[in-house]
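# step 3/5: fold
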Amino acid sequence: MIVSRIILDGIAMSLFFNFSAGMFSFIMPQAYSTMFPKEIKLAAAPYVDKKEVRRMYAILLAVYAIVFVYLGVSTYFSGVTGFGDLFWTGYIEMLFVNFGDLLILDCLLRAITKNMRGFIKGAENCKAWELGEWMKAALPEHLLIWPLTCCPLAGLITAGIVNLMHLIFG
């Protein structure tokens, strides 16, 4: 494993994912309210357009696909081999995306969107906009759920993609 490459790739993927998601949250904030804390989600629900939510999920799926393709191709060309090294490369790089999400979207963007309350209809006066309430939803997600489920899955996917590329390209 090449630690410096893992760190740089993790930072690159984190920036791409988080700035893409952040940009689209400003373009279609009502759809993104479905991913906010429960109180905001419930307050905004009557104003959420289902077509816009499907469009948001399609965009996020495309962003994730780009992240995984980048992760696989970069790892393949770095010369990392062996299931364990491939798994931990994918795990650590997705951990960068996770912590970037926590820092960029849940901390920085939340501070910006706190003034964006008026853009999300129905959620203007929710208590969940306050930092403490917001973090009650964000911290368990980023400190438990992602490291225990999404990051190991990313490690397995990375190992699979790179091993498949080794079979095809040698």
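# step 4/5: annotate
The radius of gyration is 18 Å.
# step 5/5: archive (pending)
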